[in-house]
Amino acid sequence: MVFQSRVANLWAGVICDLPNVLPSSVQFRKYHLKHHAFQGHYDIDADIPSVWEAKLIGNSFIGKAIWLLLFPIFQLTRPPRLREIQFSSLWVWIDLIVVIAFDLVLIYFFGFMPILYLMASFFFSVGLHPLGGRWIQEHYLVESPQETYSYYGPLNKVAFNVGFHNEHHDFSYVPWNKLPEIRKMAPEFYDTLTYHTSWGKLVWKFLTDKNLSLFSRTIREDRGNVATTRNAESDYHEQIRVKEEV
How many CB atoms lie within 10 A of CB 163? Predict the structure, then answer.
């Protein structure tokens, strides 16, 4: 959403991928659009943790801390379970070739240290620290049955307003720099919802609250958007079993 042109936006994503070492922007775009269209559908929404993932992490402080620290790796394990997503396309290959070529240029001129630095930067940018709280803030059931939450705090300044998540889901084609204006235009719709004011506090709550886990998500039973709040492992498994049988 940087330019009006779709092609220009795809190239912008490819360029932003260069310091990430591995390409992700084009594929993430595919997953993200499906997430908006089928939020909470286990076999389509990549934002929903896999059953084995949630069971492995459990409710412990250590388990949830490791999950946040290794968040990118866990995300990479989810695509195989997803349906209706075409993993290969021309733009996926363009992204792959451009990013790998950039990596090889760095290695040729500067050795492997820049690659290690960029990989470490990537992991620290999305994981176990206050900015990583956005992964909890967006859809984890802090106050059920509300399933999407916004963050209104100073860290939006360095996170490109990614905290305005209810606004983003309501108007997904509005650029991030304009999302605060939506809240200002319609405070009666957003200020009446539960929202967060501290990512740091939320990360600590997630790590220490035994009632919060990767199972604390809303799973939808069908494409009719019938939502069922699931905050217990047994219920989560039952919903997935029913979907697989259907």
Answer: 29
Distance CA 136, CA 170 (A): 19
Return the half-sphere exposure (C-beta side, CA atoms, 13 A cut-off) of residue 245. Answer: 7
Q: Are 227 and 148 in contact (CB under 8 A)?
A: no
Give the Cβ contact number of residue 138 at 10 Å. Answer: 21
One-letter amino acid identity for 133? Answer: G
Task: Write the DSSP string, the chain.
Answer: --SSSHHHHHHHHHHHHGGGSS--HHHHHHHHHHHHHTTT-TTT-TTSPPHHHHHHHTT-HHHHHHHHHTHHHHHHTSGGG--S-----HHHHHHHHHHHHHHHHHHHHH-SHHHHHHHHHHHHHHSSSGGGGHHHHTTS-SSTT----EE-SGGGGTTTTTT-HHHHHHSTTS-GGGHHHHHHH-HHHHTTS-EES-HHHHHHHHHH-TT-STT-EEEESSTT--EEEE-SHHHHHHHHHHHHH-
- Residue 222's pLDDT band, with cuts at 50, 70 and 90, is low
Q: Residue type at 206?
A: F
CA-angle at 216, arms to 77 and 79, nearest 5°: 15
Q: Tell me: the pLDDT tens digits for 57-101?
A: 999 999 999 999 999 889 889 988 887 777 778 999 999 999 999
The full 3-state SS of 3-52, as one line of letters, equals CCCHHHHHHHHHHHHHHHCCCCHHHHHHHHHHHHHCCCCCCCCCCCCCHH
Tokens of 193: 């919802």
